[in-house]
Amino acid sequence: MDATSTCFLVRRAAPDTAYYLITAAHALEQTKGETVILVLRKAMPDGSYQRHDYSIPVRREGKPLWVRHAKQDVAVLRLADPLSVAVAALPASVLADEDRMKSEYEERLVRHPLGLGTILHAQYVRETLDAAARQNEPSSK
Fold this sequence. Notes:
The strands form four sheets. Strands 7-8-2-1-9 form a five-stranded mixed beta sheet. The protein has one domain (8-134). 13% of the residues lie in helices and 33% in strands. The protein has 141 residues and is α+β, with helices and mostly antiparallel strands. The protein is globular, with a radius of gyration of 15 Å.
């Protein structure tokens, strides 16, 4: 049986043009195979939405392409290829950083932009997002 999971997309500041998929780490870890389907929706003039299935690689030769947070159930997958549908990703600047945190113990939550119930700690998302971006820098290869 196929499984489903929720996610959201984030974009970092220029010059980084990639989208970053944020989801629960266990969702990717339990996925079988090298690719998954990201379901995108394109708004139509009549107010309806047209479904677009977008295949994304999650493993290469059995090795994960995502970055997992060291302690939390957060994973970030960099999507290097252009998406088939224009999407409005969250800017990474909306995620709480150390300057916006009152203490390391204060919880800051990011809610899925469509209110579908995905709740992640922004500090962990930001840490994992930064790690995923560093993994794809030329000097780290």
